[in-house]
Specification:
By secondary structure, the protein is of the alpha+beta class. It has 3 helices and 8 strands, in the order βαβββαβαβββ. The chain starts with a strand and ends with a strand.
């Protein structure tokens, strides 16, 4: 894992949250994107070298909707940048981590993503991110 790629925050209302975080950081989000297959709309902010991803559910049965129903708004995941997501998945499985999706899928911000189950990471949902080469 190279660095923290971003921190994902689950929100009920993306527009309200965009306004709140724009006030917090002193500048607007730089990108919004919908990931239809995950039932989520995202918004990205930069704070220095760091990124924050706000996530709003677009379907009542999406993972973000379920998360908010159980835990409320708040930190949903920490994402780490990796060079080779398939190799990193294998390495982590060999270390005993449970990978929620063994085959990486397309996520927001031009990334391939995979998640580690929080039960094997002290309660924190970990996302692996690899930039998609085009």
């Amino acid at each position: 894992m190279n660095k923290i790629e971003h921190i994902g925050i689950a929100v009920k209302d993306l527009e309200k949250s965009n306004s709140l975080f724009a006030s917090l950081f002193g500048e607007s989000h730089y990108k919004t994107e919908e990931v239809t297959n995950e039932g989520v709309k995202t918004s990205f902010f930069k704070s220095g070298p760091n990124k924050i991803e706000l996530l709003e559910a677009t379907k009542p049965d999406s993972p973000i909707a379920k998360f908010i129903e159980k835990k409320g708004e708040g930190i949903h995941h920490i994402a780490f940048a990796v060079d080779n997501i398939k190799e990193e998945i294998k390495r982590l499985q060999n270390e005993g981590f449970f990978v929620l999706n063994e085959t990486p899928k397309k996520g927001a911000d031009n990334k391939l993503v995979a998640f580690l189950h929080p039960k094997t990471t002290n309660g924190v949902l970990i996302e692996l991110c690899q930039e998609i080469e085009e």
